[in-house]
Amino acid sequence: MTAVFWICALLSVAGAFGMVFSRKAVHSALWLALTMVNLAVLYVSQQAEFLGIVQVVVYTGAVMMLFLFVLMIVGVDSSDSLVETIRGHRGASIAAVSALLVLVVTMVSQGMQTMAINRDPVGLARANSDEGGNVQGIAKLLFGRYVFAFEVTSALLITAVLGAMVLAHRDRIRALPGQEELSRQRLMNPATAAGLPAPGVYARHNAVDTPALLPDGSVAENSLPGALQLRGVAHDVREEVAVTRAAELAADPTQAQEDES
Amino acid sequence: MNPSAYLALAAVLFCLGATGVLLRRNAIVMFMSVELMLNAANLALVTASRMHGNLDGQVFAFFSMVVAAAEVVVGLAIIVQIFRSRRSASIDDASLLKF
Questions:
Q1: CB contact (8 A) between residue A157 and residue B47
Q2: Of B28, B31, B38, which to mutate for an interface test with A (greatest number of A Cβ within 10 Å)?
Q3: Which of A117, A166, A235, B14 could lock onto B40 through a cystine, CB 3.0 to 4.6 A?
Q4: Is the CATH number of domain A1-76 1.20.120.1200?
C-alpha cells in the first residue's frame, strides 16, 4: 500500500504540475487525465472501489473528452498570452498559494498528530462487508439516508442539460443556401458560369498547390483552394513562368516584339 | 499508509489547482484547474471515510462528482458561447463589466 501511495502521489503531483505549467491547452488536458487516473488508483487503494471506477468513467472518460472536444472547437492553438496584465500578479499569486499550502498542511499535521485515528484508521472492511460490498453499502446510503439529495441531483442534471442546450444553440440570421440556390448563384454570375479554373495545370509542376495561368501569363488566384492560400503554402510559379517565357523567346525571337506592341 | 499522507497530497493538489486558476489566462485551462481542486477535495473526503470507517464520505464524494460534471457541461457551453461572440478564449478579453 505504501508503494502504491508514493507512486500514485508522485505521478499525480507531476500531472498537476504539467497541467498548470504546460503552454498548450491540449497538453494541459492530457496531464490532467494522468492525474485523474492516478487519483482513481488512490481511491481503490483506500477501499473505495466504486468511486475509483466512477472516477475513471466520469472524469477521464466523459469530462476530459468534453474538454478535448471544446478545445477542438475553440481552436487548439489559442495559446495563452504570457504578458502580465496586472503588475506583480504572478509573484503575488505564487506567494498566496504557498501561504495557503503551508496553512493547510500545518492544519492537517497539527490536527492529525493528536488523533488516535491517524495511527490506526478504522478502515472500511467492516462497513464494506456489512451490506455485502462497497457498491451495496453506497447504494444503501444513497437510496436510504441521502435519497432526498439524490432526487435533487436529478433536478440539477436536468437543469444543466437544458442550460447547455440553450447556451450552445445558435440562431441563424438567415437560412443556409442549399444546393439549388448555390448552383443558381454560380450560373447567374458570368465570371463563374463556366466553373473556376482548375489548379495544377502547368508544364513543369502538376499539383493542387500550383495556380493556373491566365492567357497573358499572370496567375489566376481563384484557381487555388482557399485553405491553401490561407496557410500560405501555395506554390510560387514566377520562376517557372520566367523559364518558360525565356525558352519561348529563344525559340521565336519575333514574339518579343509582339509582346511589346 | 496513514491518512495524513493522503490529506497532505490532497492539500498539494488543491494548491496546484489554485495556482492554475490564478496564473493561467486561458478559460479552459482555468476550468481544468478548478476540476483539479474538486478532485483534491474528493480525495480528502474518501480519506476521511476510511479514517472513520463509514461510507458517508464516499457518498459525499459521489455527489461532488455529479455536481462537477454538471458544472463542466454548463461552464464549457458558456466558454464556447463567449468564443463564438469574441473569437477568443482568453479571460482578459471578456472585460465589458470592468468599468
A1: no
A2: B28
A3: B14
A4: yes
